[in-house]
Write a structure and sequence with these properties.
The complex is a heterodimer of chains A (231) and B (233). Helices cover 85% and strands 0% of the residues of chain A. Chain A is built from nine helices and no strands. Chain B has 233 residues and is mainly α. Chain B has one domain. In chain B, helix 1 packs antiparallel against helix 6, helix 2 crosses helix 5 and helix 4 runs antiparallel to helix 5. Chain B is globular, with a radius of gyration of 20 Å. The two termini of chain B are 20 Å apart. The model of chain B has no long low-confidence stretch (mean pLDDT 87). The chains are: A mainly alpha (231), B mainly alpha (233). Chains A and B meet through helix 6, helix 7, helix 8 and helix 9 of A and helix 4 and helix 5 of B.
């Protein structure tokens, strides 16, 4: 196979095969997305009562509520996505396959990324309806894209470590949250900037920070993933 | 089989102790009293030195983690753990001593300033590091995951700092460019600078000594583990 197919397209093929596998499995069981979604809605409802989201409060805390929701729902999804691989021995199967292991990392990351975006795609209109506030602002969507990317890039690698530990249910958020604080700060600030219609110059530094984070952590995860799955 | 400490380490112990005594003497007897803040300013010498040592510990841990992944030699893992342990303790000393200073100067124990927040997030990262290690029984995997997490965690620190920096800060910057809006800033006189530099060096030597001791301890306990396994067989 290596002789006939050029290396880059072979790599992409593997990545997409893994993404396809995850999507197909999810399509049949609908465990992960439905879990994340119901959880996300519950979090929004809890915030509604905890913060008393009246019109005045909403204008300042909407982006915070959204990102807290994505963060919590995200850990749920990440944990589940790696736990199914581990428990049913799928990960060992994947590792036995004669493919570049970083392709496995990118496949899993991309699949988790798609799940995060799907949750956002459903949560955003619901939030818009609940609070009568239009959230479909291109800038906000861009922030969600960049923020989720950084989140899953680190999350996938930490989740694949956490599921191999004895204390895996509590471990992932503890490992993940302190490391993704820059993503959260930047994403919350950029989102509220777009929601309040601030000038682009004010938001730009947050967007640059998000891009920098994404680049650094995709690269680092790419370099260390081999050591996480090596047996 | 009791192994004695190597001669160099014994000498280092004595050097560290003497330097520490001199540093304390300098801080309390040699350095002049700061005119506005009074005696509480003396926290500064050991406060900065402690956080410096803490950061050094985390840096050493990340580098040793990198070497571990490359070579798979247990020594690197032991050094990496030692770095984190020392870093955690000294960062905590830095945070607490800073708090003691902040109470009279800023009129609050705590503020959400980039430095304060970042150092505390660092503490949380490395507490998570130990929880990760504790959750994994197999020593080789524990070392590998520890190394990966110490690298990922360390890399996130500057970004965390940057992200919080964009909020306004009131923490004084004594070394390098000073922000006039910072509260509690002061200019160091010659004697203050000398005391400060000496404290910094003392703490660096203390760090080296502790790292050596902790690494030696780690190696000894690894030997005991192996001996126990041999007896059971």
């Amino acid at each position: 196979m290596r002789g006939t197919v050029s290396k880059a397209s072979g790599f992409l093929k593997v990545v997409f095969a893994i993404v396809w596998k995850d999507l197909a499995a999810e399509w049949r069981s609908r465990e992960l997305i439905s879990g994340m979604l119901v959880f996300a809605l519950l979090v929004i409802f809890i915030f509604n009562f905890a913060l008393e989201l009246d019109t005045q409060a909403r204008s300042t805390v909407t982006s915070g509520v959204l990102w807290a929701t994505f963060t919590f729902a995200g850990t749920l999804g990440l944990n589940r996505s790696m736990a199914v691989e581990k428990d049913r021995g799928c990960l060992d199967g994947l590792l036995l396959a004669p493919v570049d292991r970083t392709a496995i990392y990118f496949g899993k990351t991309l699949a988790n990324f798609i799940f995060m975006l799907l949750v956002a795609v459903i949560v955003l209109p619901l939030y818009s309806i609940f609070y009568n506030q239009n959230l479909f602002i291109p800038g906000l969507l861009l922030v969600i894209f960049l923020g989720s990317l950084g989140y899953v890039a680190v999350g996938t690698i930490l989740a694949s470590m956490a599921v191999q530990a004895r204390t895996r249910d509590i471990l992932l958020p503890i490992l993940l949250f302190p490391v993704i604080i820059p993503v959260l700060v930047a994403a919350v600030k950029a989102s509220s900037g777009f929601l309040q219609g601030s000038a682009f110059a004010d938001i730009q530094s947050w967007l640059s920070l998000l891009v920098a984070y994404d680049v650094i952590f995709v690269a680092v995860s790419f370099m260390v993933f081999d050591f996480v799955v090596e047996e | 089989m009791i192994k004695e400490q190597p001669k160099l380490l014994k000498t280092l112990n004595i050097i560290t102790m003497v330097m520490m005594l001199i540093a304390i003497g300098l801080v309390f007897l040699y350095a002049p009293m700061e005119a506005v803040m009074g005696p509480v300013q003396k926290v500064f010498y050991f406060h900065v030195s402690s956080t410096w040592t803490g950061a050094l510990g985390f840096l050493v841990s990340a580098i040793a983690g990198g070497f571990y992944l490359r070579t798979k030699k247990q020594t690197w893992d032991i050094i990496s753990v030692a770095g984190v342990e020392i870093g955690l303790v000294f960062m905590l000393i830095g945070i607490v001593s800073g708090s003691i200073w902040a109470r009279p100067i800023w009129n609050t124990w705590w503020t959400w300033d980039p430095r304060l927040t970042t150092t505390t997030i660092m503490e949380l990262i490395y507490l998570a590091y130990f929880m990760l290690r504790r959750g994994i029984e197999e020593p080789e995997r524990r070392a590998r995951f520890g190394a990966v997490y110490s690298i990922v965690g360390f890399l996130s620190v500057p970004l965390t700092f940057l992200s919080i920096r964009i909020f306004r800060t009131i923490h004084p910057v004594i070394i390098g460019s000073s922000d006039p809006t910072a509260s509690g800033a002061f200019d160091m006189t010659g004697k203050m600078t000398q005391t400060f530099v000496f404290s910094l060096i003392t703490y660096s030597v203390l760090f080296a000594t502790l790292l050596w001791h902790r690494t030696r301890l780690g190696k000894l306990s690894a030997e005991i583990e192996e001996a126990k396994l041999r007896i059971n067989e």
